[in-house]
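The protein record filed here:
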Amino acid sequence: EKPCNCPVLGIIRLDYDYPPQVGDIDHPGSFAFPVEYRAVPGLTFEMCQLGKMTPEVEQNFITAIKFLESEGVVAITGDCGFMLHFQDLASRHTSKPVFMSSC
């Protein structure tokens, strides 16, 4: 069987490890197309909720965005709705469409 020649969605992840179930954004089986994940070291739910990162985590976030772009993703989203606070930051560091929240 030939690998899918489909567009790939990039997903920024919190620095949190849990066993996602099908239907969760963090489970690749939730999509009918390929996805590429990149966790941001140090990025917590609380940081996203407050909309504030430390300088180190902000650099890690930028690095993750650039990594996904280098992997050839066609768009970038996040696994936490509160990442909407970082929409502008993400958009400044990629030429790909960014939608950090579905809100």
Notes: Residues 55-70 form the longest helix (16 residues). The chain is about 25% helix and 15% strand. Residues 32 and 64 are 23 Å apart (CA to CA).
